Structures
1.
Amino acid sequence: MLITRRLEFSASYRDRKGATHGHNWVLEVTLDGPVDAETGMVIDLKDLKDVMEREIEARFDHRSLNDDTPHFRERPPTPETFAELCFALLDAALPEGLLHRVRLSPTDDLTIEVAR
Amino acid sequence: MTRVIRRYAFSAAHVLARGDWSDERNRAVYGKCANPSGHGHNYRIELTLENAPDAGAQLDAVVRERVLDDLDGRFLNRETRGFARLVPTAENIARHIWDTLSPAVAPARLACVRLVETSNNSVEYFGSEPAP
């Protein structure tokens, strides 16, 4: 069973040419796990929400990816590298193997998918 | 492989709570969804079918009769047989829809039931198949 939760947040970044972009990012986080026979749930959505707020929203919402986070000193922030970072942060915070994929959309017209 | 994706909608009330658990335990596991008065959602169903070259009207009739007439406008825990005992989580509703429709859509094969509970959460069920 796949379960998906969506989070929207705002963040800016500077590309290699020095131009600053800002977006309302939409992150869709999908877990793949068995349905617990007792609760009828893969995961308590509140727990998933808390992880997404702590690992993503608290780090990036209303921030500059370049200046306000330590994650883009070695490589430039792009939708692709940002999506890979979101996957890595969530994968480390969730029970092992539960994260199936993330989809990160900087705009309605573009989505980056990172899967295991 | 050609697949058909068909969308439906229904509205229903539910409570997430087990009758054999105390109120405290239900609150601890299901949070505000355990409020005994119930709350509601506008659910959307997305069915993915394989081998369904002519799925239109016949599929709609099957879904209407077996799923929508049963669930739409109901308090799931109190007014449907499927959820008299089974807690109507999104996961369990998706599986209930799968179990109801899967034998009824032949010769087409049901490949996925996606149930959208709110704009922020959804589940996808593939029967015994692993998620692609």
2.
Amino acid sequence: MKRKYVDLHLRPDLRNEQKAKNMINKAAALGYSLVGLTLSPNFRKDEMNRLKCLCSEAGVDFVSRIDLKPRSPKELLDSLRKFRRRVEVIAVMCESKNVARQAAKDRRVDLLNFPSTDFHRRFFDKPEAELASNSLVALEIDLQPLLLLEGIVRIRLLASLRREVAIALGFRIPIVVSSGVTDEMLVRKPLEQAALALLFSLDKVVALSAVSENPLAIVRRNRAKLDSKFVAPGIRLIRRGTDC
Amino acid sequence: MDAVWGAVLKIFGEYGASKCGLALIDYKSEEKLAILRVVHTEVETVRAAIALITKIKEKPAALHVLTVSGTIKALYKKLKQRG
């Protein structure tokens, strides 16, 4: 079966519909089947429907996503309570250790993300990975910083990513490689993203999973949970009526 | 071609660049298509380097690998099929 490629982190300026459309069309032309567009925390339903239309016109599947940047674990829990039933993918940008630990423990979080240039705030270590291994969270790696940074900063970022990827693989935490781009010129093909993942010592097979199976599994799992027929993990409503 | 060499050199250094065996085979300026030869073991290396190109002569640019093939004849055939 042909592999389906997914980019879960496109960040077009949603105030400019033309730019968003161009980015979606570019992603479709480059071979992505599903794209995750980051919505603002105060998004409206009609905004989401408009993006869904743009994606279906381009021939890609739309995945709603929100990036949370909580300042405390309490704020994270409040945000999760608010957004979990409304969007398909929730990513947490962990800027403090407490938030990183809480996000790793919480089964409502799908993706963990860390600041690219602030290396003191990259909290993905072994204790974090151990917490993440008991929940359903995946480690997300955005490639935009690799494209834009140069010199010593990029070298440090690659070293950091290599270390984190090794920890994630050791604890069997899924890795998701996304573009994280804000400009359509920075969107890359899935195989190119997988090739970039080799820069931080991700094996070719694992890199291809990171751009296809891993993000797809997250989307499928959440769509099943958000479905009206979902009752509990492993339990689905098939039929309702008096003579079932 | 300078942009590709530059990208390979920047990220992989002279040692990495020497392993690639990069050479320009053909360039069609109207279609903005280039055919590069690379050592088959370094295809992913060069693919990563090409993906890292964001500017050519200070102008924003993006290069994409359309297809890879072992022979030039098969490559042209694949390109023709893709239209």
